[in-house]
Amino acid sequence: MQNFTWRAKTWHEGIAQCQQHNVSYVLVTVVSVAGSAPRETGSKMVVTASESIDTIGGGHLEHHAIATAREFLLSNQPLTELRSYPLSSKLGQCCGGAVKVLFDVCNSYQQHIAVFGAGHVAKALVPILSQLPVKITWIDSRESLFSNTGTIHSGTDNTNTSALNSSGLPDNVNIVVEQEPETEVAQLAPGTWLVILTHDHQLDYRITEQALKYPSLPFVGLIGSQTKAKRFITKLSHRGFDDAALARLYTPIGNPSIPGKRPIEVAVSISAQLIALLHCQSDKDSTQTADRASTLSTVRAATNLSAGTRANTSAGPKATATASAENNAGEERETNDIR
User: Fold this and answer.
1) Helices marked H in the chain — which ranges?
2) Model confidence, pTM
3) Which structural domains are found in the chain, ordered by start?
C-alpha cells in the first residue's frame, strides 16, 4: 500500500483505499472494554503490510495489535479472531482495565500482467487495465516513451528510480526500462499473464520463446496478424515446443467479436479477453495458484481461443493457426504496436 495519490486518515477511508487498490488489510476493532482503556468500544483501525490507518488508542496495545495483524496477513488466508488484552504492566500499559480486540483479515489477490511494448496500443491498453484489480509491469527499452506516465525502474533489480510528474499512472502500474526486454521474462512471478505488443517482430519472438519455456506462465498473448501467428507457431514448433507449450500462446490476442485496427479498438479487444479471464478466475477461487491453468482453459471458447483454436491442441500447431484464422473471420490486425 505505497505511493497512494491520497492518504486515508480514518479507518473507513482506509478500507475504501485498500479495496480500490486491491490491497490486503486487517480491520482491527475494540469490541469490549472493562475498566479504564485508551479508547472506547467500537474504535477501529486498518492495518496493511506497510502502514496503519486510524487508531485504537496507541501505546503498547496498538503496537501489539499491529504486529498481530501483520502476522495474520502473512498467512494469506481470510480469518476472524478475537484476542483479549489485560492493560497491565505485562503489556506495558498502566490503565488497569481490559479490552477485547477483533481481527478481521481481508486478503486480496492481484493478477500480475506484464505488458511488453509502449507503443500506441499499449498506451491505450494500460490505462484501461490499471482500473482493474491487477498489478501491471510495463516494459520497454525506450525510456522516452514513458515520459509523464509514472515511475521508471531500470533493469531487473528495480533499484534505480526517478519519479516523473504527479499526473502519472496509477499505483498498480510499474514501469521497467530494459534494453533487452526478453530478459525480464525470467523475473516474472508464476501465474503472470504476458501481453506482447512491441514494435519489433524479432523482439516479439524472443519474448514469446522465453515465456513458453516457463510452464508457470499460463497466458502468453501476442499481437499480430494471422500470418504472423502462423509463422511464429511454425517456428516455435520447429524449435521443439510441443502442443502443451503452444496451448499457452494466445495469438492474435484479443476478443474477435470486437473489430477494428485503431489502437483503442485493439486495446478494448485485448481488455475484453483479459476481463473474461479475470472473471473466470474469480468464479473458481483465483487465490489458488495451482488451479490457474485449468481455470484459464475453461474460458478459451469465450475469447479468441475456441475448441478449434487452442483447446483442440491435439490437431497440431498448423491446425491451431488455421482455426484461429477462422475464428477471427479473416480480420488482419496490425502486426506490431508501431511507434
Assistant:
1) 11-20, 59-74, 120-129, 201-212, 226-238, 243-246, 263-283, 292-297, 317-327
2) 0.61
3) 11-106 (no CATH), 111-327 (3.40.50.720)
